[in-house]
Specification:
about 100 residues; 2 domains; mainly alpha; about 65% helix; 434 Repressor (Amino-terminal Domain); 7 helices
């Protein structure tokens, strides 16, 4: 549930992306039901994280390593500007501009 919230998905949105029912996702999140390997794979794709991250909380998202590698290419004195640009891009993506 925390990962879903961090990604900005409602339960209905994530359930749709993972091709499962909203009720089933709720039961998974509340540890009331187990799930198949296919469901695990669908959830990992929808959340853009590795399978091990879902299972253990350790690992990384599909894009995190690439982003970190790119950020390391910037000179330290330009990282504040990069951070502001990323925040602006995020806000623009949320408003649909």
């Amino acid at each position: 549930m925390l990962l879903r919230d961090n990604r900005g998905y409602t339960r209905a949105q994530l359930a749709g992306l993972a091709d499962i029912s909203e009720k089933f996702l709720y039961e998974i999140e509340m540890s009331k039901k187990g799930f198949s390997a296919i469901t695990l794979l669908n959830l990992s794709h929808a959340l853009e994280v590795s399978l091990d991250y879902i299972m253990t909380g350790i690992g990384s998202g599909e894009y995190e390593d690439n982003i970190i590698t790119t950020l390391r290419k910037f000179k330290p004195n330009s990282l504040e500007t990069v951070n502001r640009l990323l925040k602006t891009a995020y806000e623009l993506s949320r408003t649909g501009r």
